[in-house]
Amino acid sequence: MGPALVEIKTSNLSHTIQSALKNRDFMTNQTFEFSRAITRRPASNIVNGLRAQDTGTPDLKQMLSDHAHYIATLKRAGAEVVELAPLDPYPDALFVEDIALCLPQAAIMMRPGAPSRRGEVAEMKPVLSKFYDDIRSIKGTGHVEGGDILVTEREVLVGRSGRTDAQGVIELAGIVEEWGYRLREVFTPPGVLHFKTDCSLLDGETILATKRLDVSGCFKDYRVLHVAEGDEAAANSIRFNQFVVMPKGFPRTAEMLDVAGYEVIEINNSECAKLDGGMSCLSLRF
Ligand code: CIR
After folding, report:
1. String of b and e for 159-187 (b: at least 16 CB within 10 Å)?
2. Is ligand 1 within 6 A of the CB of residue 281?
3. CATH of domain 29-285
4. At the N or C end, where does the chain have fewer CB atoms within 10 A?
5. For the segment 179-205, what is each residue's pLDDT rounded down to a tens digit?
C-alpha cells in the first residue's frame, strides 16, 4: 500500500503559520535570495578583453563550457536565467555585473571607468527594462562599476578603485538614498581590480574576504571568513539562494566554507581569471 495522502487545508493551519505563508515574499533576504539572473555568452574576440597582466590567452571553448556550467548552476538554484547573445564589439561584455546595479526597487545603469566598456550600458538597458519599470543612471562625469558594489542587509558598500571614483560614489549615494539605503564608501586595495574581487556576501551577516581587504577595517561589525592564504582569487564567489558558487581550485577555502555550513559549488574559472573576471562578474542577480 502506498503512503496515505494527507490533505492539509489552510483553514486548519494555525494563524501563525498562515500569516508566515502569506508573508513569505517579505521574509526573503533580498541580498542573496534571487529569482533571476542575466548573463551574456563570451564572444569570439574574448582574447581582446582587458587584463592587468598577461597570464595567457583565454581559451574560448573552455570558457564557454565553464559559462554553461555557471548558468546550469544558477538554474539549479532556482533562477530564471536570461542568456544574452555575445556582443562582438565589447570583448568584456560577458562580465555583465559591472554594467548595472539591480536592487529590488530599481535598476541603476553604471558608468564604467573603463572607456572600452561604456557602450555595454546601452546594450543592457533595454534588457533590464523588461524587468524594471524604474531604471536610473549614473549620468555625471564620475564612474562606478558594479564589481565595486557589495549590497548587504544593512548598507551598500562601494569600493573606490581604478574603475570607481569619488564622484561616481556620490552620485550613486544620492540615487539609492531615495529608497532608504545607507551607502558607505570604502577602498579597494592597490592592484586589486574591483572591491568584490576580494570579497563576497555569504549571508545576512557574513562576508568572505581576503585578509588584505579585511585589514582595512571595512567589515567591522560583520562576521568575516578569510579565504586561505594563497586563495585570494576564491574571494570572488557568490551566494545565490542555497549555494555558494566559487571558483574551482581552492580546496582549503572550499572546505572551510563547507565546515561553516555553506553548500559549495565549484566552477572552473581558469579562462575568465586570465581577464581578471570571476563568479560575481558573470551575472546580474535580482
Ligand atoms: C575588466 O577588466 O573590466 C574585465 N576584464 C574583468 C571584469 C571583472 N568584473 C568584475 O570583477 N566585476
Report:
1. bbbbbbbeebbebbbebbeeeebebbbbe
2. yes
3. 3.75.10.10
4. N
5. 999 999 999 999 999 999 999 999 999
